Amino acid sequence: MNIGIFSGSFNPIHMGHVILANYIVEFTEIDEIWFLVSPRNPLKSEDELSGEQSRLEMTKLALKKYAKLKVSDFELSMPKPSYTIDTLRALREKYPEDSFSLIIGADNWNVFESWREYDKIWEEFALKVYPRSGSRITIPDKLKYRVEALDSPIIEISSTFIRESIAEGKNISAFLPESIYEYIIEKGLYK
Q1: Is residue 82 packed enough to be buried (19+ CB in 10 Å), middle (13-18) or exposed (0-12)?
Q2: Residue whose C-alpha is closest to residue 23's, from 176, 151, 177, 159
Q3: Residue 44 confidence class, pLDDT cut points 50, 70, 90
Q4: pLDDT tens digits for 59-78?
């Protein structure tokens, strides 16, 4: 099976994540997308994150009705901070019958060379790069066989916007799966 790895904080997961992943499984050769909830991105501050279990639970709730979109806590058991190359290699070792493609946004692609062993990632795994407003996707000719620029919709929703809006007391339920908005309110997250 061809698995797309969509790794992130999902702090919180929102409709943009779901729409993008749904597009990829329906319009590319990717069979399933695994949402890997990350314990902590080495490039982000730890105090920006809600607890791992809350983010994992929200991701499970958001994807419940999407058969091709799966939630994984795989990265949560790995050494922290987690590095993408280590995660992808561990997944390949655990699931040798599957192939894995890394899904990242154009904003991350443009700073990809700051990632640990970035060159090993594109040597060993395929990459799918989705567009982000304000970020161009330029793929060198030597990488076009491993890196694909997707023509997916650009969704202008960010988890930062969601968190800030909730902290300001705004009702932004339209940007989140209903169960996620209810979970956030019930647990008092992002206040």
Answers
A1: buried
A2: 151
A3: low
A4: 999 999 999 999 999 999 99
**Is CATH 3.40.50.620 the right assignment for the domain spanning 2-155?**
yes
Give the E-state strand segments of 1-63 in sequence order: 2-8, 32-37
Q: Alpha carbon 151 to chain centroid distance?
A: 17
> How many residues are given for the chain?
191
- 76 phi and psi angles, rounded to 5 deg: -65, -25
Q: In angstroms, how far is the first alpha carbon of the chain from the final one?
A: 41
User: Is a pLDDT exceeding 90 seen at residue 137?
Assistant: yes
Backbone angles phi, psi at 5, to 5 degrees: -100, 115
Type of residue found at 166: I
- Mean pLDDT, range 115-131, rounded to an integer: 97
Tokens standing for residue 162: 């969601």
Classified as helix, coil or strand, 43 is coil
Domain boundaries, the chain: 2-155
Which regions of the chain does DSSP assign to beta strands (E)?
2-8, 32-37, 69-72, 99-105, 126-130, 147-149
The Cβ of residue 62 has, within 10 Å, a number of other Cβ atoms equal to 25
| pTM for this prediction | 0.92
